[in-house]
Amino acid sequence: MELIAKRVNGTQDITPSQSWKWQLIESIASETAEAYGFKQVRIPTFEKTDLFVRSVGDTTDIVQKEMFTVTGKESSFTLRPEGTAGTIRCMIENGMLNEALPQKVYYMLSCFRHERVQAGRLWEFHQFGVEMAGSSSPVADAEVISLAKTLVSRFGLKDVSLNINSIGCPECRAKYYEALRKYFEPHKDKLCGTCLTRFEKNPMRIIDCKSDICQEIAKDAPVILDYLCDECKDHFEQLKSLLEAMDIEYTINPKIVRGLDYYTKTVFELIAGKGDKKGTICGGGRYDGMIEQMGGKPTPALGFGMGLERILMNMEEQGCDFGEPATCDIYIAPMGDAASVKAASLVKTLRDDGYWAETDLMNRVLGKQMKYADKIGSKYVIVLGDNELESGKAKLKNMKTGQQLEIMLDEDFAETFGNILIGDMMEETLQ
Ligand code: ATP
Ligand code: MG
């Protein structure tokens, strides 16, 4: 029979052998963001298509090629291709922008993009991201960049470079678009079909095109930094001084225009790896016009999105330290029905106190139970037989040292066990 239990190309399963690593990076990410004053938001998986078309931009790859869209009777819905649009919509809709500013939120969510599947490029992937609304100060840009950099270093990643650029405001961009059209005009017939439409609507997008021919043509295109107005120039200069004061190394890359339309002024990317293996793990920037464009009151904002699959991939490649997955604290091996009942009640008490406790669920003989206890890395084992039930005490065996201690099976059992566990752990760290 054909196997129907097969996942869709471009999606992935995260099984327990990997999920503990995800939990580790997720907890590092949320703890770090919270230390920077960001609070979690949870938003729907899909939104009205229009929200993405209007905020991400109708000349972007995301909107033109990558969205998963379902057209219903009255409306068209799209699985979120990124987290910013939904998060900003949520902030506006819930009146968050009327509260004390800046509003700082973070999210951890899956995103959906229909693109060519390859390593680090999936149809469903995960992003950790932050958004801050209310501040137009370059100090906010520096704070957001600093958070992204701190995260990456807490993950243990090395060789991560920060590239920054400013793509100005609509005023600077009008002049820049003119210069770009002038530059691309003689090459128009060689541009890809998508870029041909971009030529009119948003020629800056051509610089971001993935086609080799377009990239070659765009190689010597004018750079936006030469077209910044005084205010945008000043903002960029201040950001650079702030980064220097914070000891954050950066490279100015005038080619970064980012894949989304909503950016203004600062844009940045974190690139991990060297040579061929280089890849963007985080992209972000300022989008001062977006909230107003969505119908909210004009509020400057900025943020970043970090691709968690790519973070994990780079951590694996670089041999970063994930620590060890948790192992079982104690396995209680019963022999016989009465012992099974006692074991079930003992593991319940242990679990109530927060320990990972297990007992036999498979009707195994003692030898097989011990093998299983070993497989789940149980730190301690207790064997419960008739003698133990009668005397109300048992031998607690430390599986690492082989040491055995007598333990009372009374109401203080879980507490006594906890003290022994802590004592042994302290001894182990002292050695
Ligand atoms: P790229 O140039 O690699 O397509 P992008 O500019 O489309 O990236 P963003 O929209 O900035 O990416 O998304 C932020 C981060 O999300 C990226 O830096 C990357 O780490 C991750 N990411 C983007 N698309 C995918 C995908 N299809 N699969 C896995 N991760 C992705
Ligand atoms: Mg992309």
What does this 3D model show about the protein?
This protein has helices at 16-35, 49-56, 61-66, 84-93, 138-154, 170-184, 193-201, 204-207, 212-218, 230-245, 290-293, 308-317, 337-352, 366-375, 386-391, 413-430, and strands spanning 39-40, 46-48, 69-71, 76-79, 103-112, 124-133, 160-166, 251-252, 264-272, 279-286, 301-307, 330-334, 357-359, 380-384, 393-398, 404-408. By secondary structure, it is α+β, with helices and mostly antiparallel strands. It folds into 2 domains: 16-169 and 229-317, BirA Bifunctional Protein, domain 2 (2-Layer Sandwich); 330-420, 3-Layer(aba) Sandwich (Rossmann fold), CATH 3.40.50. The strands form 3 sheets. Strands 1-5-6-11-10-9-7-8 form an 8-stranded mixed β-sheet, sandwiched between helices. Adenosine-5'-triphosphate is lined by residues 82, 113, 115, 120-122, 125, 127, 259, 280-283, 305, 307, 309-310.
What is the CATH domain class of the largest domain?
Alpha Beta
Number of strands: 16
Give the ligands present.
Answer: adenosine-5'-triphosphate, magnesium ion
What's the average pLDDT?
A: 95
Question: What is the third-level CATH name, the topology of the largest domain?
Answer: BirA Bifunctional Protein, domain 2
CA-based gyration radius: 28 Å
Biggest sheet, strands in spatial order? 1-5-6-11-10-9-7-8
Unreliably modeled segments: none
Query: What structural category characterises the helix and strand content?
Result: alpha+beta
Oligomer state equals single chain
Annotation field: number of helices: 16
How many domains? The number is 2
**CATH architectural arrangement of the largest domain:** 2-Layer Sandwich
Helix share bin: 40-55%
Distance between the termini: 57 Å
> Which word captures the global form?
elongated
What does the largest sheet look like? 8 strands, mixed
Classify the beta-strand content into a percent band.
Answer: 15-25%
CATH homologous superfamily identity of the largest domain: Bira Bifunctional Protein, Domain 2
